[in-house]
Design goal:
- By secondary structure, this protein is an alpha/beta fold.
- Helices cover 42% and strands 18% of the residues.
- Strands 1-2-9-6-5-3-4 form a seven-stranded mixed sheet, with helices on one face. The protein has a two-stranded antiparallel ribbon with strand order 7-8. It has a two-stranded antiparallel ribbon with strand order 10-11.
- Strand 10 and strand 11 form a beta hairpin.
- The longest helix has 21 residues.
- It is globular.
- The termini are far apart.
């Protein structure tokens, strides 16, 4: 039976590519409400906590990066066909970043695009993967090289689902929230610097503030540049390095957030080498990343292999590898850097 009152608070409503995407803070009991007619996508971990209505059609994917693949998309599409879903149908992605990416990608290509509701259960998905309409899968050994822009009609956020995450998974999400702070929220950065113990303890009040602030940073950027024609590129801070590391090390060896944290450290060093980042700001970034337990030393993989992976990165332009370099809080530059300088950044002691 439905509840008489639904415990939801609208945080922000975005206009993305002609569609509206609403980010809602929801109580855990209301996450699955009114979605009984949808096709649910989840993984083996999140199935047990999904709260999906009895009898609902569901596709359960394997856990981890292996699910970001064509076979997983094929399973979802076949389930939609078997269900007889028409253009008024809806997919629900319930899970972490992988589930959100795959569910939204499948929704974007089924009947040229059907509605999708995302219910992220990991911190990383809440502050990044589920927000902004980017979808994607891994292909030919490269991260997110196949994808679309397809905004979720609705994203339902409930911070209490993060309590089931391992410490490693939780810190993976924190890396993307730290990135958001560096990109545009001084108060959020100071929150990270001054309240590490409470954040790592996942205290609900402060965690809700971290999630909300992180989402608002990303929301401002993606609404201004939905299809990454310019400003949205700043959201890739640390990601050119991170995607290369994930490809070289093998997907799953590093969590995405761990790789992003390492990538932000490398971007700070590259910013120093190119004159865009002061030594003080670079030191501030590295100190914060170390405080949250991230590995930031440069010698984690063969530099030449990392460079080769970067040559395949979708963010390159005109054959050059582009990097997002942090100048100050809220200030970045996006520019190509020559490969010799990039390699110098890998041998710096960090």
């Amino acid at each position: 039976m439905k509840k008489d009152a639904i415990d939801r608070t609208e945080w922000v409503r975005l206009s993305l590519g002609g569609s509206t995407s609403t980010i809602i803070h929801s109580g855990v009991e209301d996450l699955a409400d009114d979605l009984s007619d949808a096709l649910w996508v989840m993984d083996a971990n999140t199935e047990a906590i999904s709260g999906a209505p009895d009898g609902v059609r569901r596709v359960v994917l394997p856990v981890g990066e292996a699910a970001k693949s064509w076979p997983a998309v094929d399973r979802i599409l076949r389930a939609a066909v078997e269900q007889g879903m028409d253009r008024h149908g809806r997919f629900v992605g319930f899970g972490g970043g992988v589930v959100c990416d795959v569910a939204a990608f499948a929704a974007s290509i089924y009947l040229r695009g059907v509605s999708v509701t995302l219910i992220p259960t990991s911190l990383l998905a809440m502050v990044d993967a589920a927000i902004g309409g980017k979808t994607g899968i891994n292909f030919a050994g490269f991260k997110n090289i196949v994808g679309t822009f397809h905004a979720a009609d609705e994203v339902r956020i409930c911070e209490s689902t993060t309590h089931s995450l391992t410490d490693r998974e939780f810190r993976s999400g924190l890396a993307e929230a730290i990135k958001a702070a560096l990109l545009g929220d001084v108060e959020l950065l100071e929150l990270f610097e001054g309240h590490a113990e409470a954040i790592l303890a996942r205290e609900d009040a402060i965690l809700t503030d971290v999630i909300r602030r992180s989402i608002l940073v990303k929301a401002r950027v993606v609404e201004a540049d939905f299809r990454e024609g310019g400003q949205r590129a700043i959201l890739n801070l640390g990601h050119t390095f991170a995607h290369a590391l994930e490809s070289v090390a093998g997907f799953g060896e590093w969590t995405h957030g761990e790789a992003v944290a390492w990538g932000m450290a490398r971007a700070a060093r590259l910013g120093e080498l190119t004159g865009h980042t002061s030594s003080q700001h670079a030191a501030r970034i590295l100190t914060l990343l170390e405080r949250y337990g991230y590995r930031i030393d440069p010698g984690v993989a063969d530099p030449n292999a990392l460079l080769e992976a970067m040559r395949h990165d979708k963010k390159r332009a005109g054959g050059a590898i582009r990097f997002v370099l942090p100048c100050e809080v809220g200030e970045t530059v996006v520019e190509p850097v020559d490969e010799v300088t990039v390699l110098q950044g890998f041998v710096h002691p960090g």
